[in-house]
Amino acid sequence: MRWRSEEALAPREWIGFVPANYLNATHPEAIFVKLLVVRHAPSGRAILFGDTLKRIGNGQVQLESVAAERIDAVLAEPFGPPGLSGVRREKPCPT
User: Fold this and answer.
1) Strands of 44-49's sheet, edge to edge?
2) Which residues make Cβ contacts (< 8 Å) with residue 35, sequence separation at least 6?
3) DSSP H helical segments within the chain, as ranges?
4) pLDDT tens digits, residue range 45-94?
5) Rounded CA gap, 32 and 24, in Å?
6) Less Cβ around it within 10 Å: N or C end of the chain?
């Protein structure tokens, strides 16, 4: 089925977006409900996605699995601003 350009640009009702928005906001595999932190630096970058820490620098990539009890410490080290002794992290809302 091909859409004509007039159909593609036609106004949509907000109710048509509700199921997709709900799925993206609540599904455990959706990127919007997982922890995602990225820090860029001149020497490279650090990416924490869920329980995986990825460090990229000097042409190398290092992957590390982070235990749940270490997440706060990992956030403070590569992601916190200089001089920050800890990072406050909100716990996810219960479902």
Assistant:
1) 36-41, 44-49, 52-57, 60-65
2) 48, 49, 50, 71
3) 5-8, 18-26, 71-74
4) 999 988 899 999 988 999 999 998 888 888 877 776 654 444 455 555 44
5) 7
6) N
